[in-house]
Structure formats: structure tokens, C-alpha cells
Write a structure and sequence with these properties.
The chain has 427 residues and is mainly β. The protein has a domain at 3-133: Immunoglobulin-like. The chain contains 7 helices and 23 strands. It has helices at 3-6, 114-117, 168-171, 217-224, 243-246, 261-268, 285-293; strands spanning 10-13, 29-30, 40-49, 56-64, 70-78, 93-95, 98-100, 106-112, 127-133, 137-141, 151-156, 173-179, 182-186, 200-204, 208-211, 269-270, 280-281, 360-366, 373-375, 386-389, 405-408, 417-418, 422-423.
């Protein structure tokens, strides 16, 4: 696909409305069955460079949204001349995939490695569609408890009001934030960690949602009916729960066990006025690290003070971790030993809390050696140990870095091991 072929491309912009009568404030509910939003989009230029698998398509565009809402920008492809937009892989997107609109037109740009994603296509059939989606947050209301017939799920175009100060978001409402698809360097080539987590290129080809907080003991009780945690506190993370009880079943080929936390959540979490369930799950290991790094490439998402010794053996305590997470240097008070209330430290650039420390977090994958390069990796095929990530209140700083990995059998449980919820949207 070269410049001559690109001259035949047709780009279709989608800009329908959300719910009729929705509030004109920056924060309002959105129907999950409506894909398009009232953001205004316009294409400025489409160019192409390279040949074969190296063909790179660049789309310069402008956007405007008077509400000031944040949007996920995506690219859809039709292989039948625009008669319908079928699901063609669009894995290698990069650029301004998350934008915030304003009253004035703002420039954006995305690039698509089309030659690798969709090779040998003809200009007379290829159509592209640039879309915007403002369903940035999902809120699952579990207040009715384990006897509820359904848990309502509402989407919002920005963070719920007073997310950090309203305790209901740590007790009876589970909040998830949208992560834009993209590529990143997973792992670390540090000599002391690369055997477990060597750096390699990873592409996540789909947007997904990630829990803003670790699942708390009260939230667990509202879904499962009891709380097994060793360190009690309704807004503390649930602990002492194994992979089987959280998720169970088989993966990547199967669904969660019906009686697991994810199984119950899938069965009851409902879009209003719909019988469709939502595929809540644990994140993959790649999804977890991508969300933890939040666009950075460092151990933690805040810089270390100048002169800090960052070698692993010296890194039992780390000034860069102190404002971000709970770990052994700030959690061993004999009168208050253990994990802490979620969301009390600084969140990362993508609005997620406690990604470093507090409790380890289960992931979907079986543990194994990393691939050198991967698209949507699903972990090892050797079915022995499941992965958990992030470090805990019982760990040194070096075990809380973004690339750190641990593993154990699916029936393993511990007072420093919990989880957070994830979801890959199907709408």
C-alpha cells in the first residue's frame, strides 16, 4: 500500500449523539450500546510511507468537544468498499489515542502499521473509519449484595465526582477506567531482573478497562457474601483469596467458574435495559504492566530524587516509592501491620492507585519465559503457576517495580495477595 493506493481511501467520520437529554456537564452517564459521541472530528491529511509489511499510514486530524470530555480515538477498517465495517485487525496503532476535547479545534495524529496488520489489500476495497468513544469509566453498583438479581453498570465520560473522597467507590461501587490500545516495552533489561523479565516489545491491540482500585473486602462481600481477609478493613484490599476463587475455570480457552467472583460478576453485572453480560476478568500480565507503567518506562511512575542509589541490592527502601505505595518500609508498624485502605497514595498518570505495593495482584497468565515480541500475549502454555504482580506491603521496594514478577499455584493464598478487575469491551 503506497501513496498511489492511498489516494483511493475514503475516511468516514462518526459523530452521532449520546443519550437524549444527557446533562451538559463534563460528567454524565452514557449508554453502553451507543458507540459514537458528539465529539467533532475532521481529517486534515492522510499519508503513507514504506512498502510491504513496513507500510505506515499516518492520519492527521482535528477534534473539538465543548463538554471537555476525554475520548478514546480508534480506527476501523472495511475490506468490502464500506458496505460494512468488518473486524479487521488494527493492532499496530500509535499516537493520540486518548484526547480531551475543548471549545477550540485541537490537532491530533495517529499512525497505523497497515502493511503488518492487513497486507496485500487493494485501494478499491479499502475504507477507513475514524471513531471517538467517550465511555472512559465504568461503574458497577454492587450495593444490593450477594442476593441481588443484577448489578447495574453505568458508563461515564470522565471520572465520577469525588472519586477519591467518596468511600462508596471503595465499598459498594467498582470503578474501572479505560486504557487505550498501544505498544510498549514490557520487562526490564537490568542484569539482576532480565532472567525473569527481559525487555521485549508488546502490542495490545484492543482498548480495555482496568479497576481504579484493588478490589476491597466490602466489595468482595457484596458479591460473594463473606470476607476471607486476614487484615480486616472494609476499604482495605481483600486478601487470602486464590486464583481459583477469584476466577477459576480455564484460560485462555474458557470462561470463569460460575461460583467464582468473576463468574458471579459476569452473571449479574448488567447494562441497564439489556440482558447482555459483560466479560469481567483478571487482566493479562501484559495488560497489568502496561496499565502500571502508564506511558512511562521507569521502575516507578515518579522520578527518583537525584543521587538515589537505584541498584536492586540497595533498593530495599526507595524515596520514589514512598508517595506511591505501601511496602515494607512504611507498613511494619507493630500496631498497624499489613496492607492499607486503597487509594490513599498518589495514583499514576492513568488514574490507577496502588499499582506498586499494598497487595500483589493476580493476573490471568500461566507463568513462563517471555516471548521476544508479542501481540496480545497470553502467557505460557506450561500449566503450573499463575502470575501475580506489583509487590506488596510485605516487600522491599525492588519487588514493587513495574517489571517485577512472582508466581504460585492457582490454589495459593496469602495475606499480601489480592487482585483488581479488568474488562475487554465487546461493544
Amino acid at each position: 500500500m503506497n501513496r498511489a493506493i492511498l489516494s483511493g481511501l475514503l475516511l468516514i467520520l462518526v459523530a452521532n449523539s449520546v443519550l437524549a437529554g444527557a446533562m451538559q456537564s463534563p460528567w454524565h452517564p452514557i449508554t453502553l450500546s451507543t458507540r459514537s459521541v458528539p465529539m467533532k472530528l475532521r481529517i486534515i491529511e492522510v499519508t503513507s510511507d514504506g512498502i510491504g509489511e513496513e507500510t505506515l499510514v499516518t492520519i492527521a486530524f482535528e477534534f473539538r468537544d465543548a463538554r471537555g470530555a476525554q475520548m478514546a480515538i480508534g480506527l476501523e477498517v472495511s475490506g468490502n468498499n464500506g458496505a460494512e465495517f468488518i473486524k479487521v485487525p488494527v493492532a499496530t496503532l500509535n499516537g493520540d489515542l486518548m484526547v480531551r476535547g475543548g471549545k477550540e479545534w485541537t490537532a491530533g495524529e495517529i499512525s497505523w502499521l497497515a502493511g503488518a496488520d492487513w497486507p496485500n489489500q487493494h485501494a478499491t476495497q479499502l475504507k477507513l473509519r475514524l471513531v471517538a468513544d467517550d465511555r472512559m469509566y465504568l461503574v458497577v453498583d454492587v450495593a444490593e449484595g450477594p442476593d441481588a438479581r443484577a448489578y447495574p453498570v453505568i458508563a461515564y465520560n470522565s471520572a465520577p465526582p469525588d472519586l477519591g473522597g467518596n468511600d462508596e467507590y471503595r465499598k459498594t461501587k467498582i470503578v474501572l477506567r479505560r486504557m487505550a490500545k498501544g505498544r510498549f516495552i514490557m520487562g526490564d533489561d537490568d542484569a539482576e531482573t532480565q532472567l525473569k523479565a527481559p525487555a521485549h516489545n508488546v502490542v495490545l491491540s484492543k482498548d480495555y478497562y482496568m479497576g481504579v482500585y484493588e478490589v476491597t473486602q466490602r466489595q468482595w462481600e457484596r458479591v460473594m457474601g463473606s470476607t476471607p481477609a486476614k487484615h480486616a478493613g472494609e476499604m482495605r484490599p481483600v486478601d487470602s483469596v486464590d486464583w481459583n476463587l477469584i476466577r477459576g475455570g480455564t484460560w485462555p480457552s474458557g470462561h470463569p467458574a460460575v461460583v467464582s467472583f468473576m463468574g458471579v460478576l459476569r452473571a449479574k453485572a448488567r447494562i441497564p435495559n439489556s440482558s447482555a453480560s459483560l466479560p469481567f476478568d483478571l487482566p493479562t500480565e501484559a495488560q497489568w504492566e502496561y496499565a502500571c507503567r502508564a506511558g512511562t518506562s521507569k521502575d516507578f511512575h515518579l522520578p527518583r530524587p537525584q543521587g538515589t542509589d537505584c541498584s536492586a541490592k540497595a533498593n530495599d527502601a526507595d524515596p520514589a516509592l514512598e508517595p506511591l505505595g505501601w511496602y515494607v518500609a512504611n507498613c511494619m508498624d507493630p500496631e498497624n501491620r499489613g496492607h492499607r485502605v486503597v487509594g490513599r497514595k498518589i495514583g499514576n498518570a492513568w488514574g490507577l492507585y496502588d499499582m506498586h505495593g499494598n497487595v500483589y495482584e493476580w493476573c490471568l497468565d500461566w507463568y513462563g519465559n517471555y516471548e521476544t515480541k508479542a501481540v496480545d500475549p497470553v502467557g505460557s502454555t506450561i500449566q503450573m503457576y499463575r502470575v501475580f504482580r506489583g509487590g506488596s506491603w510485605f516487600d522491599q521496594a525492588r519487588d514493587c517495580v513495574a517489571s517485577s514478577r512472582k508466581n504460585n499455584t492457582p490454589d495459593f493464598l496469602s495475606q499480601d495477595l489480592g487482585f483488581r478487575v479488568s474488562l475487554v469491551p465487546t461493544w
